[in-house]
Specification:
Blueprint: E1 2-6, H1 8-18, E2 25-30, E3 37-42, E4 45-50, H2 51-60, E5 64-69, H3 75-81, H4 85-90, E6 92-95, E7 103-106, E8 110-114, H5 120-123, E9 135-139, H6 142-157
Parallel strand pairs: 2-5, 5-6
Antiparallel strand pairs: 1-9, 2-7, 3-4, 7-8, 8-9
Length: 177
């Protein structure tokens, strides 16, 4: 599969389908990170829940979740974050001010990469008049997922830290740990 996705499709295909279907690992990289709410089907119909609850549920089932982001999220994100103990205990996170690539890799088999930051407006979770114009690729092709995973892993493991020139601004540099 190699599928172009834009605007609301990013939300429906990536956030609502791909992410919750992860069974082993979920890697997320983004420059900007904000609180985002998503639709969840329940017996009483649709309701909106924090995306952080989705991540917490994945962590509770044993999915490894890694998050790389370039700057600290806002107060609404931190407030929702504090509601989910699984996030405090099990979410693996690295803050890297150089990260500007955006991707979501699920189980090493399916990935989204594109222009959208991990925000409601970027991921298409907002209403028509409040969404960004974004696009990306949703794929299960190994020839695309392997270099994307390698880039993520190079940042995650600190391979790029020594030559980045921003280490003094990077509180999470893996090389220093």
């Amino acid at each position: 599969m190699l599928k172009f996705v834009s605007d609301r499709e990013i939300y429906t295909e990536v956030i609502c389908k791909l992410v919750p279907s992860s069974t082993k690992m979920l890697w997320i990289a983004t420059a900007d990170l904000k609180d985002m709410y998503v639709e969840k089907q329940s017996l009483s119909g649709k309701k909106m829940i924090p995306f952080l609850q989705v991540l917490s549920n994945l962590l509770d089932t044993g999915v490894e979740v890694r998050l790389i982001h370039a700057k600290e999220p806002g107060p609404a994100f931190r407030q929702d974050f504090d509601k989910y103990p699984a996030l405090w205990k099990n979410l693996e996170r690295v803050l890297c001010p150089r990260v500007h690539f955006k991707c979501i890799i699920a189980d090493g088999k399916t990935a989204y990469f594109g222009s959208a930051n991990f925000t409601g407006a970027g991921m298409g979770a907002k209403s028509d008049g409040r969404r960004n114009f974004e696009n990306g690729i949703l794929t299960d092709r190994p020839e695309l997922i392997e270099p994307l995973s390698a880039q993520f892993d190079n940042v995650w493991s600190g391979i790029l830290c020594k030559k980045c020139g921003r280490r003094k601004f990077c509180t999470d540099c893996p090389v220093d740990k």
